[in-house]
Design brief:
The protein is of the alpha/beta class and about 400 residues long. About 40% of the residues lie in helices and about 15% in strands. It contains 13 helices and 14 strands. It has a 5-stranded parallel β-sheet with strand order 5-4-3-10-11, sandwiched between helices. Strands 6-7-8-9 form a 4-stranded antiparallel β-sheet. It has a 3-stranded mixed β-sheet with strand order 13-12-14, covered by helices on one side. The chain binds 5'-O-(N-(L-cysteinyl)-sulfamoyl)adenosine and zinc ion.
Length: about 400
């Protein structure tokens, strides 16, 4: 399916630093070290509700990954999925009495519009689960043929015993895995499974639910194999970054990696597993089920500048669980106004040292707070002493720096 339009990224003098990111599997910050073209897969939305600030924060983090890689001279190949058929979408559609496909279409378009407004760089390939069904069923047939999948009634399951590396992404102990599996769409109590942690690859047709007639029988794909196959077929094994929010560490990313490793007999699926923290409101993770959403589209409709939303979300580390509070937006609006005033100056201090500081901050596991602090310092200097500045190119380079590296258009 179509993604959304891209903004041109301004050219900057010189070259950025190699990006280091915290890899969940390694448990430490490591160089990403792409060989040539950098490959990234980020888990996309399940389009049953509108983009909230939690989604936005997560996609912003990976937008920065792309910007830093590009600045360091890499081509980037970025793939994102849309889980356009799954239980939460079907449940929501039934609840509001709407056709599941029209609900999905509407929310995907809203997401595109929100991403465009926030100047999030689009993926090169934007792939829906429904359009990927033929490649997903091919993969499941391979797993069945190799006895790395088994049937329970009309369903097909993945045995975690088929993946020697299972557990190596999250490092959670078995009790934690069982708890999270039950909380996040798994079915540990299903009778007929070999292990409670085995995950569904193909779900046989259920009354009243959509299904596709395939060689596996009528049904629809499981969630983890969707991302596994979409990524594998476009990026190959060993791509650079598998990304998403920290709620995907287990079971989703563990199982996606296990499926791909069982399919290919090689490892790793991704060289780094990178996770954004959860945005919360009133002490709880922002989510549809908790009803504590701040929607990007609502803020836009209220006339809030999307660049202020972007700045507000960049003000804090992407990995930290963060609370959205009422004061964040006015603070970001004030900061944006100062930055715009500085960008409009006819002259200002040399911005080359600022560019170096922003590059260094972002390369160090996307330290946006340090990047914003450095920018604030340059802006304060420019606003305090514009008359004495010797370099007329300062404001121009400053504006290009925050545009190219932070995605803020002044
Ligand atoms: N379709 C699946 C991934 S394949 C899915 O998780 N969809 S989602 O719509 O629920 O979430 C989309 C992305 O936003 C995921 O990366 C998820 O981890 C992230 N996300 C969801 N809620 C939050 C939140 N409160 N804070 C930060 N990120 C969030
Ligand atoms: Zn996914």
């Amino acid at each position: 399916m179509d993604a959304w339009p891209s903004n041109a990224v301004p050219e900057l003098p010189g070259e950025g630093e190699p990006l280091r990111l915290y890899d969940t599997a390694a448990g430490e910050v490591r160089p990403t070290a792409p060989q040539g073209t950098a490959g990234m897969y980020v888990c996309g939305i399940t389009p049953y509700d509108a983009t909230h600030l939690g989604h936005a924060a997560t996609y912003l983090a990976f937008d920065l990954v792309q910007r830093v890689w590009r600045d360091a001279g890499h081509e980037v190949r970025y793939v994102q999925n849309v889980t356009d058929v799954d239980d939460p979408l079907l449940e929501r559609a039934a609840h509001i009495g709407e056709n599941w496909m029209s609900l999905a279409e509407r929310e995907i378009q809203l997401f595109r519009d929100d991403m465009t407004a926030l100047r999030v760089l689009p993926p090169d390939e934007y792939i829906g689960a429904v359009e990927a069904i033929p490649e997903i069923t091919d993969a499941i047939e391979l797993l069945l043929a190799d006895e790395r999948a088994y049937r329970v009634d009309d369903d097909v399951y993945f045995p975690v015993s088929a993946a020697p590396g299972f557990g190596g992404e999250s490092h959670y102990d078995r009790d934690t895995m069982l708890t999270l599996f039950a909380e996040r769409g798994g079915d540990p109590a299903r009778t007929g499974k070999r292990d409670p942690l085995d995950s569904v690859l193909w779900q046989g047709r259920r009354p009243g639910e959509p299904y596709w007639d395939t060689a596996l029988g009528p049904g629809r794909p499981g969630w983890h194999i969707e991302c596994s196959v979409i990524a594998l077929n476009r990026l190959g094994m060993g791509f650079d970054v598998q990304g998403g929010g920290s709620d995907l560490i287990f079971p989703h990313h563990e199982h996606s990696a296990a499926h791909a490793e069982a399919l290919t007999g090689t490892a790793p699926f991704a060289r780094s597993y990178v996770h954004a923290g959860m945005i919360g409101l009133d002490g709880e993770k922002m989510s549809k089920s908790r009803g504590n959403l701040v929607l990007v589209s609502k803020l836009r409709a209220a006339g809030v500048d999307p660049m202020a939303v972007r700045l507000a979300l960049l003000d804090g580390h992407y990995r930290a669980d963060r609370e959205w509070t009422g004061g964040r937006l006015p603070a970001a609006e004030a900061r944006l106004a100062r930055w715009r005033a500085a960008a409009a100056l006819p002259a200002g201090p040399d911005a080359a040292p600022l560019l170096a500081e922003v590059r260094a901050a972002l390369a160090a596991d996307l330290d946006t707070s340090a990047a914003l602090d450095a920018t604030d310092r340059w802006v304060a200097g420019a606003l305090e002493a514009p008359a004495t500045a010797e370099d007329g190119t300062g404001p121009g380079l400053f504006a290009r720096t925050v545009d190219a590296l932070l995605g803020i258009s002044l």
